[in-house]
Amino acid sequence: MAQKVLIVDDETLLLRTLSNALRDAGYQVLPAGNATDGEALIEGQGGAVDLMVLDVKLPDRSGLDLLQSQRERGYAGRVIVMTAFDNPESERRCRQLAVDHYLRKPFDLEAMLDLIRGLLGGSGSGPNLGDVRRN
Predict the structure, then answer these.
(1) Crossing angle of helices 109-120/12-24, nearest 10°?
(2) Whether the predicted pLDDT of 134 surpasses 90
(3) DSSP code per residue over 72-123
(4) Into which CATH architecture does domain 4-120 fall?
(5) pLDDT of 41-72, one tens digit each?
(6) Considering only CA atoms, which of 36, 34, 26, 102 is closest in space to residue 69?
(7) Over the Cα atoms of the chain, what is R_g?
(8) With contact defined as beta carbons under 8 Å apart, do 102 and 91 qualify?
(9) Domain spans of the chain?
């Protein structure tokens, strides 16, 4: 069975591009344009999502708020948080919520795919608040 990746981002082009790339790589993708839809997708899977890729700034609420509510419900899976805005408070919350990677947009798609393969392949070495920047 394919590993499930939830992607929550309100940038339609990024959501579509990343979703297609992950499907092509063999993942089951659950795309959402806001936190409310993302939460509904998680609940529709019974919480069984292998990786969450969340944007910080969403139209209805923060991706970090979505993650916090899922952590409180027992979600212990891997998480990548993306943002176009450098914000020390967001980085601090990412540490508190055990985020695996905090990425600044824009990022290189191939580098993102490599990161996801590493996290889901079990080769992740714990939290890394580094970034993957577009060259």
Answers:
(1) 50
(2) no
(3) HTT--SEEEEEESS--HHHHHHHHHTT-SEEEESS--HHHHHHHHHHHHTT-
(4) 3-Layer(aba) Sandwich (3.40)
(5) 999 999 899 999 999 999 999 999 999 999 99
(6) 36
(7) 13
(8) yes
(9) 4-120
